[in-house]
Design brief:
The chain is of the alpha/beta class and about 220 residues long. Helix content is about 40%, strand content about 20%. It has 2 domains: about 1-120, Rossmann fold, CATH 3.40.50.2300; about 125-220, Orthogonal Bundle (Arc Repressor Mutant, subunit A). The protein contains 8 helices and 11 strands. The strands form 3 sheets. The chain has a 5-stranded parallel beta sheet with strand order 2-1-3-4-5, with helices on both faces. A 4-stranded antiparallel beta sheet has the order 6-7-8-9, with helices on one face. The chain has a two-stranded antiparallel sheet with strand order 10-11. The radius of gyration is 18 Å and the shape is elongated.
């Protein structure tokens, strides 16, 4: 899943970025409002973590523009402004959640994960597709009761497909949601990781779960 973090205070920006990446998220960052607005309006994100007090363009102005585009991206405001009227203003402008600094990273991570589940209408953190289980909190994958060892990138790909199980997911959608903006991966990298993922989650098991729809994309599910 892909997150945009717009935060001007470098220690927080670096710590949150590192934590989110360790948790399996692709993360783009911006240190000012102008850059953050450019990222937010020009790319697809599952969640945007947005500071309010930013240089150049403030966070509420960015939030207004995001909502003016009718974007369904969930926005978590992360700010030191903790007065009730600040919370009300942010929520009324379309923020989905509001976290006040100082904060515990584990709580921020839990809120980001909850917003991702809300976006894909997956209230249960445990996703099941036939005998395949994806625990999105522990980032643990099991099939037929046995652990499936995945790399962080393979897990991110599987989680995205699982959030949309039964639906065709295109290569551009995978690229947008699993890879960061400055990724320099080759154009066939999605196909490579799909092949690796298929080998690991299938490995001679039945039914087959990861299907190619030629000319369209990929589907995770039991239907051929």
């Amino acid at each position: 899943m892909r997150v945009l973090l717009v935060e001007d205070y470098e220690p927080i920006r670096e710590a949150v970025t590192e934590g989110l990446r360790e948790a399996g998220f692709a993360v783009d960052t911006a240190a000012d409002g102008e850059t953050g607005r450019w990222y937010a309006l020009g790319n697809a994100y599952d969640v945007i973590v947005l500071d309010l007090m930013l240089p150049r363009v403030d966070g509420l102005a960015i939030l207004k523009e995001i909502r003016a585009t009718r974007s369904g991206t969930h926005v978590l405001i992360l700010t030191a402004k903790d007065a009730p009227h600040d919370r009300i203003a942010g929520l009324n402008l379309g923020a989905d959640d509001y976290l006040v600094k100082p904060f515990v990273f584990a709580e921020l991570l839990a809120r980001v994960r909850a917003l991702v589940r809300r976006k894909y209408q997956a209230k249960d953190p445990l996703i099941r597709v036939a005998d395949l289980e994806i625990d999105t909190t522990a980032r643990r994958v099991r099939r037929g009761g046995h652990d499936v060892k995945l790399s962080p990138r393979e897990y991110a790909l599987l989680e995205f497909l699982a959030m949309r199980s039964g639906q065709v997911v295109t290569r551009p959608e995978i690229w947008e949601h699993v890879y960061e903006f400055h990724s320099t991966a080759d154009s066939n990298v999605v196909d490579v990781f799909i092949a690796r993922l298929r080998r690991k989650i299938e490995a001679g098991r039945h039914p087959r779960l990861l299907h190619t729809r030629w000319g369209l994309g990929y589907v995770l599910g039991t239907a051929e």
